Structure prediction request, 459 residues.
Amino acid sequence: MAASVAARFISPFSRGFSSSPSSLICPTPLLFGLSACGSLSSLRVRVGNANCSWTMTLKRYASRESMLRSKTFDGVRPRGLVEVKQAVRTDTDKQALLMTRHPDSPAGARSLRVAIIGAPNAGKSTLANQLLGHKVFPVSSKVHTTRQNATGVVTHGSAQIVLLDTPGLTSTKRGKRHHLEESMLGDPQKSLHEVDMVLVLVDACDTWSQYGLDFHTMSCLKQHADVPAILVLNKVDAVKPKRKLLEITENLTGGFIGGSNRAGPSKRKIVRGVDVANVEPPLRDRPGSIDEGNPGLIDSTYSCNEAAISEDNGQKDRVWWGFKEVFMISALNNEEVDTLKAYLLKQARPGVWTFHSEVITNLTPQAICANIVRSHLLENLPQEVPYCITQSTELWEEGAGGELKIVQKLIVSKKSHLKLLVGRGGKIIRCVVERTRADLANVFQQEVMLKMGVYLQQK
Ligand SMILES: Nc1nc2c(ncn2[C@@H]2O[C@H](COP(=O)(O)OP(=O)(O)OP(=O)(O)O)[C@@H](O)[C@H]2O)c(=O)[nH]1
Prediction:
């Protein structure tokens, strides 16, 4: 990824850069800010003009050989010591303009639209952020952090992957309990109408998920059986012993991956008293028939498996026979995420891109900020309190020194919630402000001045 970004963006500016970071000369673009990051061996600068801006990390390598050996360049011969990473836009108008720019598809362009679905807290947004290389989607240890579908764009060489991060699949009853908007219940299903592939993310250390797919995931898969599905077991870092992963995979796939039984007789496992590896799915349930585009048949024949598949609280089937591939990853530690990304890039089919290559997400900068605030509220406040806070952006302004000035307004409806939000001596709100500020500075690669006002709603 870094290689292609470097290759694409170095050219317009590289003539002006010398090969040493200490003697940086900038041509037409303006230098917004300069900050040393970490050690003296690397320097991060933000450059841009009225239309665009980039953040560049200039690295000092021990020798030219070590630079060329560096994995960052991925075999591409760099021009100078410049490695470029696109920054997420902070200007709403420019972001809106970018979204309408004509996609700059190269000759031989390929594209793939992928939805990430799964139960709440499975790690969908963590994975989407890792695939993007930017923390633009909200992550927290509480459920229902993501409120609506959001798009991320990965452009690598001639391939573009459009990722749809979706809210966790849930029931209307739970939706009411967590004050969820209607979009949260409908968006995951909606996302499947627009994609070429679906990643079904399963939390491998969740005891319930280990024995089969949940009802909502199954119903999504059944309704969109024509969309190739990939099983992604996440949080494998927390699963011990590791052989348990095979057992979980078999419980979720029935041993059928990509149309063949990969379990083999020695690995047969019993799912709640049923030897799933020993059960052949009915012919019309096999992935081959799905590819032939006969989604309606899946629903009508599914009951054939009833006797063979475990029964849990009235849920008759929890095994999906049609997974094309299985990946085992740790999104948090970025383990095997690159393998998954490489697979997705390979799956991209000839076709023009949907977005201009500079687009990273369809979210506005304010929405990214609101997401980050929300994730820190969820992390720092107990039970239902963070779900009852209304947020709005009061100020969003670029200061004279290039810093981003943001004022967020938080409204609570109960005095008790206000007390918890502020914390003793303002401890909680200070923590939320500081962590949000740090995350925003990281996403926008810019200095951020953040203030939060907390208000009690007048009855
Ligand atoms: N141990 C471990 N934790 C993970 C991993 N991936 C995500 N998490 C954690 O799981 C929690 C939920 O992650 P999210 O990305 O918010 O999950 P989500 O599926 O988007 O959640 P919803 O918005 O509720 O749908 C966070 O605390 C993450 O840090 C992983 O690979 N290993």
About this structure: The pocket of guanosine-5'-triphosphate is lined by residues 118, 120-126, 139-141, 143-146, 167-168, 234-235, 237-238, 330-332 (CB under 6 Å). The chain has 15 helices and 18 strands. The longest strand covers residues 110-118. Confidence is low (pLDDT under 50) at residues 1-85, 263-316.
